[in-house]
């Protein structure tokens, strides 16, 4: 079995006590790395100021070498905050209006990818398989190829891929697409994303769908497919069951006694539809006054990318909106929205999912959305809750037992909340079983195996046809 090299912007480092970092993706990739032996390389999250970063810092844990690099202040500003988070992130989430183009940032993005390639290349052996993750590192394969590497290189995009009309508004769309063609396998979350990718090649006349998942463009033949990411379903279900005994979870349960709880969990990000969701909850309460004082909505929203102006603005808006609704509708003994603007412990999170009658997951656009899957896995099989899910989350393609909503339709989401709260136990069980069965048979280990199998076994093609 070939060695595996995983590259991602940030690396989930194992905890000080040696236990693996939490989160399904980290667990699955760590397991794959452990089995094959390998390296996980990425940015340390630290800045080297204005000095060239020193050598990679390396940490060995079992079969895995974690290799981290610092970046300069300029790199962080241009590559990470600038191009990745203020161009690629909004564009891939269909937010043309929020993209901030700057030549400096674009150049910085390509420069840091070249830097990553130069740091990584000396560690790579000819048989290694390389798996690159997410939008920060699209040009990495092209840089490695430029240095003469012939290894199998795969890429997985965790976020959506937009339709051609949106992508072409980005001044460097051609370079980005050319970057993707240097991989042997490009994985997307859903078949919609894959279709958008194929549609761009067709529309711009720069490539062909050769059938069977093969494409040619920019003089190269490569594979692309949909690989919907999963969670550690069985493990998370057990975890949530035992989390019911957690002190904080029990305290929360007592504090909502006699009321239903609705839960929302999202990084503070404009793609998650938090503002529209708070509006929908308000509309639900004003349209169904009998539910006032009978429902508590808990919104857990860890801060994210606070140094990017759009996120700073969002943070203010969400806090104001929650405060306004609480002031207008709350009573002396009932706060309709409990808003927690920081990260909470994973055990408590699992226990809270299980307490909630409704999981409210309404992103305006999301590659997959793991919260939706975690909410389902955490439910008590005897009295499961209801998932209210945006049709614009990748997860909606799989979770057919959810109440699907259009998050832009505030009234429609409010109605779905009412329907979820009134749903019979029989219907809840039926919908939940359907989703749980799917999640058990499509977990994150399978996702990882499928991607690596296709990357390794993709037929040896005459990869360059120019
Ligand atoms: C990207 C794509 C795709 C959240 N708050 C807390 C906390 N979380 C955990 C959740 C979940 C994860 O963070 C969030 O994952 P999502 O999938 O919902 O969203 P993104 O962060 O945007 O992830 C997304 C994903 O990549 C994987 O491919 O699904 O579409 O955007 O696991 O549980 N965890 C803890 N405390 C919190 O307060 N411990």
UniProtKB/TrEMBL annotation:
InterPro entries registered for this protein in UniProt: Glyco_trans_20 (IPR001830), Trehalose_OtsA (IPR012766)
Pathway: Glycan biosynthesis; trehalose biosynthesis
Catalytic activity: D-glucose 6-phosphate + UDP-alpha-D-glucose = alpha,alpha-trehalose 6-phosphate + UDP + H(+)
Record-listed E.C. numbers: 2.4.1.15
Entry keyword set: Glycosyltransferase, Transferase
Function comment: Probably involved in the osmoprotection via the biosynthesis of trehalose. Catalyzes the transfer of glucose from UDP-alpha-D-glucose (UDP-Glc) to D-glucose 6-phosphate (Glc-6-P) to form trehalose-6-phosphate. Acts with retention of the anomeric configuration of the UDP-sugar donor.
Family according to the record: Belongs to the glycosyltransferase 20 family.
Summary of subunit composition and partner proteins: Homotetramer.
Full protein name: Trehalose-6-phosphate synthase
Organism expressing this protein natively: Rhizobium anhuiense
Lineage: Bacteria, Pseudomonadati, Pseudomonadota, Alphaproteobacteria, Hyphomicrobiales
Gene: otsA
């Amino acid at each position: 079995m070939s060695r595996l090299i995983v590259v991602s912007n940030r690396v989930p480092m194992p905890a000080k006590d040696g236990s693996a970092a939490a989160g399904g993706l980290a667990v699955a990739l760590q397991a794959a790395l452990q089995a094959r032996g390998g390296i996980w390389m990425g940015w340390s999250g630290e800045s080297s100021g204005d000095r060239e970063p020193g050598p990679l810092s390396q940490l060995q844990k079992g079969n895995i070498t974690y290799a981290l690099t610092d970046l300069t202040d300029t790199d962080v500003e241009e590559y990470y905050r600038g191009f990745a988070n203020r161009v690629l992130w909004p564009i891939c989430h269909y937010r043309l209006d929020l993209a901030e183009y700057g030549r400096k940032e674009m150049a910085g993005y390509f420069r840091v990818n070249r830097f990553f390639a130069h740091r990584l290349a000396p560690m790579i052996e000819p048989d290694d398989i390389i798996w690159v993750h997410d939008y920060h590192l699209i040009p990495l394969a092209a840089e490695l190829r430029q240095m003469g590497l012939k290894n199998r290189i795969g890429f997985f995009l965790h976020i959506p891929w937009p339709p051609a009309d949106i992508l072409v508004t980005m001044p460097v769309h051609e370079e980005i697409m050319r970057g993707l063609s240097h991989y042997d396998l490009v994985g997307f979350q859903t078949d919609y994303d894959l279709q958008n990718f194929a549609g761009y090649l067709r529309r711009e006349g720069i490539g062909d769908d050769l059938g069977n998942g093969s494409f040619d463009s920019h003089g190269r033949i490569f594979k692309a497919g949909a690989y919907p990411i999963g969670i550690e379903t069985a493990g998370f279900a057990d975890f949530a069951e035992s989390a019911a005994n957690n002190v904080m979870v029990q305290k929360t349960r007592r504090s909502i006694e006699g009321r239903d709880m609705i839960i929302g969990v999202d990084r503070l990000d404009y793609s998650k539809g938090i503002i529209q969701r708070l509006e929908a909850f308000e509309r639900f309460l004003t349209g169904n006054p009998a539910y006032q004082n009978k429902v508590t909505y808990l919104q857990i929203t860890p801060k994210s990318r606070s140094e990017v102006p759009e996120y700073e603005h969002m943070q203010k808006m969400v806090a104001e909106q929650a405060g306004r609704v609480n002031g207008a509708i709350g009573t002396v003994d009932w706060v309709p929205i409990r808003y927690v603007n920081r990260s909470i412990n994973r055990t408590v999170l699992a226990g809270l999912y299980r307490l909630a009658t409704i999981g409210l997951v309404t992103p305006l656009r999301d590659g997959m959305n793991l919260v939706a899957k975690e909410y389902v896995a955490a439910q008590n099989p005897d009295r499961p809750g209801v998932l209210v899910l945006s049709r614009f989350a990748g997860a909606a393609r799989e979770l057919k037992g959810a109440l699907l909503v259009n998050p832009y339709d505030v009234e429609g989401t409010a109605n779905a909340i009412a329907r979820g709260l009134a749903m019979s136990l029989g219907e809840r069980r039926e919908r939940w079983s359907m989703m749980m069965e799917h999640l058990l048979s499509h977990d994150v280990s399978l996702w990882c195996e499928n991607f690596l199998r296709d990357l390794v076994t993709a037929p040896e093609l005459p990869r360059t046809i120019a």
